[in-house]
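[09:14] KT: can someone run the structure on this one? pasting the chain below
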Amino acid sequence: MFGDHDTDAVDAINGTIITYGQTGAGKTYSMEGPSILVCDEQKRGLLPRVVEGLFDCIKSSGGTMKHSIKLSMVEIYMEKVRDLFDLSKDNIQIKESKSQGILLNGVTEISVSDPAEALQSLSSGIANRAVGETQMNMASSRSHCIYIFTVHQEVKRDDRLKTGKLILVDLAGSEKVEKTGAEGKVLEEAKTINKSLSVLGNVINALTCGSPGKVNHIPFRDSKLTRILQDSLGGNSRTALLCCCSPSPSNALESLSTLRFGMRAKHIKMSPRVKCNEDKCAKKQGPASSPIKHESCDIILDKLKERFDAEDVKLLEELFTLNGILFDPCSSEELDSAFEDVTSQTIVSLQQAVEELASTVDELKRENKGLKERLAAAERCHAAGKEAGDNNTSSLVHKLPGILSSFVSWVRSLSSIKLLNCEVN
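[09:31] RB: done, structure tokens below
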């Protein structure tokens, strides 16, 4: 079913396979199978089949080309991209290159030379995935997992270098809280998952419902998932979608929603093509073309300054830098679209910050109210203690004359006794 994607990757054509469906519908099982390392031949998942297919294609290509495969593995957890081969890299930035498309800056790439080595590396990465227990799934994936196979192809006779990518995506499942019983941290994870899947749906709708001949805004930058899948969904890639449905009648509505999503995605028009590595070509051609590129960039910058104030241009540059975007515009239409994308993303971030601040203010108000109540109670206790002390002092003052009178009488009687003793002697 997915054999063409292996061949395309070896031939420097990008490919993507995505598993989609509700939680517990079998997405991860379809991707990995019962076990990624050892399982029955007929029950193997997509990953083992893809790995074997890639190396088979390389073997059958003959000796006229030199191939190498590198493997990366990341997960998108709570809107952060984490490297599953190096857990210290827990917030990888997404960047864009005109020649290479969407890139994960600093992601770990492992060179693999045979299927066994590739599967062993994948197994170690899978062990680092974020999972949690819900009422619908004992080991529910709490993140979107992305497997990236990069195939470099070098033609020996002229040293041309081509690169193809095969991306496999195991999406986290959409969740209804009343069914999963999610609470606390698991609930927050579910909210983030559902939000990113909603953005994915918006992207699919924008790609399939646009007016012919009109450039439509595609909200790729509204989530990390759609940003990484930008080339896979709307660019240079051959993409397949595996829709996973639950056989349970109680999940009929979710299954119907999954199938409708698949029907919409089917109408996306792709244009996969072979692309040479321009970096290696540039080494042979030298820097002759760079002045032309700089000149065109200057023209675009001048046009941008004409359309916006100088402060707006500087703000736009800062916003792109903060969002980890390397933008190389080629038309004023792209500038407008990019400006709208970054502005909308900034507005969303500010709205989230306002919500967090509002929550903090409410919490501080509750703490302040509690402190006021404790202070009032302390003041009442102090007043009661002071009143009791005053009463004791007043009583002592009233008793003091009687005490002194008794003391004087006692001294006088003692003196009389001593005087009597002296007379007797």
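[09:33] KT: thanks! The first helix runs from residue 3 to 10.
[09:34] RB: yep, looked fine to me
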